[in-house]
Amino acid sequence: MHSTTLAAFGFLGLQLTDVAGFHVPVPVQQAHNMRSTPARMATEGTNESGLKKLTISSGDASAEVFTLGGCVTSFKVKDYDYLFVRPDAMMDGSKPISGGLPHCFPQFGPGVIQQHGFGRNLEWEVVGSTDDSVSLKLSDNEETMAMWPHPFECVYKVALDGTTLQTELAVTNTGSEDFDFQAALHSYFRCSDINKVTISSPKLDGASYLNKMKDPPATETFSGTKMTISEEVDQVFKGVTGDVSINDAGNSRVLVVSNTEGWADTVIWNPYGNEGMGADNFVCVESAQVGGEKLAAGKTWTGKMKLLPA
């Protein structure tokens, strides 16, 4: 009788489970849904030179992240890439990647250690991923301690939400003493023609900026809320953050660089006329903390930036 009942349950597409010592039939589909389903992960691969990269996607958007330098090199929406990798970029690991969203850490520009620090030169560890996000980590080692003697941990998350790219950099002082650092995303944005680009922000008007094209560099005041580029530009705007819009009239596209936390400054750079760098087809609008951030032992600083195609 018992075996006949079990056979009947099997015929009806039921699966047995134990509840308080009794065999209770559970529909097979329900039993299947009760099992854990592995989360979808970012797609891992390499470029032609063997550099490791991860690809994430969300709807019509996709992004590509290299573990060398923790560098985002592509952000596409419907096949248009809003990021730019320079034609002179070395993609074989011999130099940092010149393009996309490279890191400047723990130094911006020239200083006591190598240009723009070591964050863009080193391999970042993948500590997590889904189909639409990836998290990378960089922490102190013998090489970094020889240049900059401070224990630290950087965790960088890149995520897609529809047609928005979100980045979050968390810097933690893992040592017992305070330290000062600088940071930036040396962001390269694609344009049809640099002469047709307008950069705008209400915070530009009256903003103080360091004009690094002057010899020696000079502090000047900007007038107006918009700027165009018709010569080589290297300007560090202190206190200009929030939303900065890049309007490319050549292809009727607008990209908003939205700094939502941590990034206090904006750097605008273009090596106008430099064909080898591809200067006609990009502008750098960089999310930065160039004034220096003092980080107490055990504390974390976070910088958040979003890219919003409009």
TrEMBL record:
Query: Does this UniProt record's set of keywords contain Phosphoprotein?
Result: no
**What reactions does this protein catalyze?**
alpha-D-glucose 6-phosphate = beta-D-glucose 6-phosphate
**Where in the sequence is the active site?**
186, 286
For this UniProt record, the keywords arranged alphabetically read as follows: Isomerase, Signal
Enzyme Commission number, as recorded: 5.1.3.15
Q: Which InterPro entries match?
A: Aldose_1/G6P_1-epimerase, G6P_1-epimerase, Gal_mutarotase_sf_dom, GH-type_carb-bd
The text of the family note is: Belongs to the glucose-6-phosphate 1-epimerase family.
> What is the name of this protein?
glucose-6-phosphate 1-epimerase
Q: What is the species of this protein? A: Ectocarpus siliculosus
Source taxonomy: Eukaryota, Sar, Stramenopiles, Ochrophyta, PX clade
